[in-house]
What we know:
Blueprint: E1 5-14, H1 18-30, E2 34-40, E3 45-47, E4 50-54, H2 61-78, E5 82-86, H3 91-99, E6 103-108, H4 112-115, H5 124-144, E7 147-150, H6 153-159, E8 163-165, H7 174-184, E9 193-198, H8 207-219, E10 225-230, H9 235-241, E11 250-254, H10 258-267, E12 270-273, H11 287-294, E13 299-302, H12 305-310, E14 318-321, H13 326-338, H14 340-356, H15 360-376
Parallel strand pairs: 1-2, 1-5, 2-4, 5-6, 6-7, 7-8, 9-10, 9-12, 10-11, 12-13, 13-14
Antiparallel strand pairs: 3-4
Amino acid sequence: MTKKKVCIIAPIHKYSDVRIFHKEAKTIFEDGYEVILFAQHTNNDIIEGITVKAIPKFGGFLKRMFVQPWIFLQVVRCEADIVHLHNPDTLILGFIFKSLRKKVIYDTHEDFTKKILVREWLPKVLRLPIAKCVGRLEFMAGKFFDKVITTQPDVCQRIGTNCIVIENPPKINKKIIDKVYSRASSIEKGNCFRTIYLGTINEIRGLFEMLTAMVYLNEEYGISARFWLIGPIKQELLEQAQKHPGWHYTDFLGQLPQEEAFSYLLRADVGLIIIHKVGGYDYTNPNKLFEYQLFGIPFIASNFPYWKKSVDSASPSGIFIDPADIQGIAEAMFIIAHNKDYAKTLGENGRNFIVNYYNWEIESAKLLAVYQEISESH
């Protein structure tokens, strides 16, 4: 069977997004599909065999919508057999492509009916109506599109039977992991206990709880500790964080390439993922937690039941804590700092879980099965 041409449309994501490019696009490309990715990039390019079409720069929801006609024309010119959509912004395009007899996949990484309710850039009066509208469109996509992919079982149940859960575990790429280990040897950890957070930095993701816990750890528990804070942050929030007492114990590195960020992770003693219970975050896949496990680093994470079910409870690999309990976060740090054998066991348990049971190499089979089913259907 001749493999099909696929257009992946991800207008608000950078082309290098881990799930979209490194996991999904590479997986289907390596299986023989021709892949064209529409995403944020500086210029049109061909990267590892995948054609990247740079989407024109935009800012704000309304401007994003004005880019849609351009995307539509570009995809039509590509003569794609399968259109793989990311983000609810693209749902209307999906219905148009379906009317043109294209095969259409909608792929949602989050529960946007909940995320929209906490979007600060949206006026509060509009959040609930827009969330309901997105929910209705996603339900209709489940009826009319060829397949809907989600990362969360509850979202899949809401959309219907034509939906499949493809989770977002780490990709075990030996080449990248070897580079990370090689680079990590040149990173100075300092003579201290190192905590780390990787990812988007904001208040919902526990920025100030982590900073305050660092104050407790150093000044009340007497542990010499420093905090590597890695990821993008808005300038206004950065200035606010710099005034916090915990900033004295923080090394802020900004946004780093994945391999470099993982190199710092490898030198850390514990990874933090302290997210508030808002916007459905308690039902998202805790990707950072899984990355900590991949590199054998124990974690301290929000005690969400769904997160606890996502890891091997028989072989603990971290400590779950109430995200609002700052004293408890500091106590968990203290426990890991003072029990090196326990910390080592947690790290080894986490790595074994990822390597043997929960990785993209296993999960990707579901994606290839979706593509084969769609390619063979009439």
